[in-house]
Amino acid sequence: MPNLLLQKIPAVAFTATARVRFCPNPHKKMTGAEQAGMIVTGRKASFRVEVPVTDEWVYLKLEMNDKQRGQFYVGVEKPESKDKSGIEWTRAGEPFQAVEGHWIGAQAGLFCTRDDRPHNDAGWLDADWFEIQLQAPKKRP
Q1: Sheet of 107-114, strand order
Q2: Residues 78 and 60 sit within 8 Å (Cβ to Cβ)
Q3: Which residues neighbour 14 within 8 Å (Cβ) at sequence distance 6 or greater?
């Protein structure tokens, strides 16, 4: 699969966060043909959230719980935000269930692609950083 930067899901429960900026090809008028964002992909299904097309940096977040249920969020910097980080998070899409991959399990990461055209003259996804924080396992009775 071209245009993917992925890694195996590192733990049962984790949070992946990235600061990105999507820059579609400025010389092409391909509204909706180019997409970029964060993805979770497995053998039978993939789930993703797309980056809004702006000139601004935005934040993408994936929260996976200990049952491998995920939820995406999109964030923007807001100094007056309730979050101590200064980022205002908005839920993106519905929660989903991650599924196994082919050889190495489900994977999470970033993507930038476009629809089927003979030449790839699409834009790009600037990624300032990508971070994964493991969640402490819950104690079982």
Answers
A1: 4-8, 107-114, 34-41, 46-50
A2: no
A3: 64, 132, 133, 134, 135
Structure confidence by residue, pLDDT tens digits, 71-126: 999 998 887 656 667 888 999 989 988 776 555 678 889 988 877 666 666 678 88
- Please say whether the dihedral angle defined by the alpha carbons of residues 127, 47, 53 and 134, taken in this order, is positive or negative: negative
In the numeric block, the tokens 């996804």 are attached to 125
CATH fold group of domain 4-134? Jelly Rolls (2.60.120)
Model pTM score = 0.82
